[in-house]
Amino acid sequence: MLPPAARLAARRLLGLATSSASESAAARRLSRSPVSAPLPLLQMPLYLLAVRRRSFAVLISPSGGNVSLQISYAAAGCFSRLFSTALNYHLDSPENNPDMPWEFTEANMKKVNEILSHYPSNYKQSGIIPMLDLAQQQHGGWVPVAAMNAIAKIVEVAPIRVYEVATFYTMFNRTKVGKYHLLVCGTTPCMIRGSREIEEALLEHLGVKRNEVTSDGLFSVGEMECMGCCVNAPMIAVADYSKGSEGYTYNYYEDLTPKRVVEIVEMLKRGETPPRGTQHPERKNCGPAGGNTTLHADMRRQW
Amino acid sequence: MAFFARAIRHSSPYLRSRAPPPPAVAASCRWISPTAAAGSPEAGAAVAPADPETPPPREPVGGARVELPSNPEDALEVFVDGHAVRIPKGFTVLQACEVAGVDIPRFCYHSRLSIAGNCRMCLVEVEKSPKPVASCAMPALPGMKIKTNTPVAKKAREGVMEFLLMNHPLDCPICDQGGECDLQDQSMAFGADRGRFTEMKRSVVDKNLGPLVKTVMTRCIQCTRCVRFASEVAGVQDLGMLGRGSGEEIGTYVEKLMTSELSGNVIDICPVGALTSKPFAFKARNWELKGTETIDVTDAVGSNIRVDSRGPEVMRIVPRLNEDINEEWISDKTRFCYDGLKRQRLNDPMIRGTDGRFKAVTWRDALAVVAEVLQQVKPEEITGVAGKLSDAESMMALKDFVNKMGSDKVLCEGNGPSPPADLRSNYLMNTSIAGLEKADVFLLVGTQPRVEAAMVNARIRKTVRATQAKVAYIGPPTDFNYDHEHLGTGPQTLVEIAEGRHPFCSTLQSAKNPVIIAGAGLFDREDQDALFSTIETVAKKFNVVRPDWNGLNVLLLHAAQAAALDLGLVANPTESIKSTKFLYLMGADDVDLDKVPDDAFVVYQGHHGDKAVYRANVILPSSAFSEKEGTYENTEGCTQWTIPAVPTVGDARDDWKILRALSEVAGAQLPYDSLSGVRDRISMVAPNLVHVDEREPCTISSEVKPPVKQQVSSTPFKTVVENFYMTDAITRASKIMAQCSATLLKK
Known about the structure:
Chain A is built from 13 helices and 5 strands. By secondary structure, chain A is α/β, with parallel strands linked by helices. The longest helix of chain A is centred in the N-terminal third of the chain and has 16 residues. Chain B has 6 domains: about 50 residues, no CATH class; about 100 residues, Roll (Ubiquitin-like (UB roll)); about 110 residues, Alpha-Beta Plaits (2-Layer Sandwich), CATH 3.30.70.20; about 55 residues, Single Sheet (N-terminal domain of TfIIb), CATH 2.20.25; about 210 residues, Rossmann fold, CATH 3.40.50; about 130 residues, 3-Layer(aba) Sandwich (Dimethylsulfoxide Reductase, domain 2). In chain B, a hairpin with a 2-residue loop joins β11 and β12. Chain A: Its cofactor is [2Fe-2S] cluster.
């Protein structure tokens, strides 16, 4: 049986309990003692939980009864939203497990040797990041644990050293993504210019949630932080893994509207290549719409 | 004031967020300050440059000795809180502060691990430095003026502490680290008594590291001590730091148990309750425990331990610092064998009846039965065998008793048919365990130190890591946690080296301080004389034994072995057991009981109902190492005492006392009645065994040995320790060790 405090916490997370005045008064009273254990959860005002409700998914663990585990899952859900596409630990699945055979293709092996040639032979581990990138391109946009093990073997380090790198960098996907991985910029300038609408339009059009892959395996939508295109906000980046590491592209589509982003998705679906960069018909690169309004002269001549 | 602060806290959110409380209130909210004066900024500033004329004497933290280099140019002077201290070059600011007697708070810094500098708790103020400095990672420079208790340093630490506590659960009441937690202790000095953090706390999924280490990863403060310990000391690259930012967590990424024989040490180095002892979970609080400083007997290293007990029960075992033996680590077998002390214990004298079942009897009856049988057998048919956990006192009493009965067949198990007991240098680790650090080439002959003596292995690994010393190994394929060269599996390779035909000879030739370690498993071989003579040839050829360096070592297996050889328990086991009519087993469970004649009368005196009990006719219960005062000599020849931590079980008695009582009943009374009496007797036979905590090196060289005519056989060396976790009666009775054997050993 669960301890009462933990049960209450779990019920709160599940939205089952209401905060009565007496409860919060009791919580406040207890909170004066500096060593009252599980109280932060109880103390947390309900409105906070409400604000964060979207990010919480309270899972009941298969073994049941372990509230701390459930809460961990809840928080892990919260962080998987904030960070990369996966949890910080690996769970075996048929398509991602350490026993799976995985190696670089012959063409990529040449690239691996090229990467290794950049570093002294006793610092092979410097090549982990470019190799992970190469493995990700080769493996359709994500790095399975077997690929990390293969890289560890090449650079002669323990596998955990590669796992550390792969989990640290959010651009390494450790779960399956679509052939076209659409990354919506969520940083402030893009958000002010409507990146949330862009994302909503994408998710609605594709019928998926964030970090989910469409049933045809073509698209997935993720979030990235500032990609440096604030002047053309809002923008998305499209990582195209459909043609393997040879035809891999990583394009920005800027000045988007919910309508235009759906058009881009449709073009990609048809196998067309939408023009990259700004989608504003009157803009050229990051210049103002309709051509320059100032600085008409050639500045070089004046200097 | 406190009421005022609380009032502010519960007032409107506007006031709470926009108006910081006046500084005086903030200061008065602190519970405990590191120094009484440091509570307010003005007082703290006044303390620092007190009076430079007469600085009060400062002792290094913990009374540590600081050895300044002989060359004065290699030392430098810094000022800690206005006191000048001299330190060797290369010390960090934190170490300089420790020399000056200032204990800097820290979480990630550990003197035996590499410097990470990521907890930021050790921030101090350094004059002319624009920001507080992480003292653990900053090298001390000449003339540096370090200030450790200024408002800047204090505020910096308080800020760090607030961030650490931000995501740390407030579950101290249900945390096993409570009471011995670095975070708890330091938050008393630097923590606020209330938090400003109203967000949700982070939580982390717990990891399964095996049957020994319990994880509550939400409590982790990411100091990475465990990661560094695993990869640097234990040599298993399993743990890592995964993720980033506040999602960062310690883990193995893939499901993996921590398969190291030193994994339990992460429990000690974890500054919080993230890694705690699984068997000890929720069993006791540290302030309820009585600590007894004693030594470990599960292997021949004699690791220094503290047995923590509550009432009659051993609750846990933790290491004790001994730079010469185990530094501050112990093996998992040492740490977790304690539950074996509660199981399978023999608590009453027992006699096997005609129906084959044991019946509990009184001591008087049991001793009378044994004495009666003793009268009926011929003196030369009496054999005494000491077990691998026996202390020197009991072995002395056993030898005296058997000799008094007219037999000279006394032996200690594990020492082989003709133990090399003539010269101490033939069975000791002559280099000493700490001395191994000076070696640059190791040649391991028939020994797997990782399972035979985990702490010796840790020393070799430390040396290999620090100086890139080369390790070569002759023996069956086995696991090493450092780079090594596997030269061969049998004595032939050794002969090749002795004759200079092996490619490894050039490495040995160029070595400055070569070390040869022979395993005690070789004692059991028929050709052991020839083997050791070959090893001596190698030693001679490559200058392993010099006046200033003795690199010829034997690594023993059991705690009793060295003392038994010192005391002369050297009978041949195969012959004496085959022909015996009266076998006295003093805790000896690993003798070949099939060879014991059917009509032999077997007395088993010991603390555990282990293997030999099945053959015993009479059982005499004795006390285990945690319950008696006993002298043990470790593999390097260092004599140490065990100290009783808990009372004995039932009617059990100390081994030597049982023998003394039996000798009286049998009519051959031993001439000592007290422990000091036994020790006086020991000092006549082996005076080194009464010089406690001293390592007495052997002074006679092996040159005086007679020449050996035996030939080495071609039989390859065997693995001596099959199961690291179960080697003796105590560990075989332990449930935790059984779990470890089941889950951690590679199949």
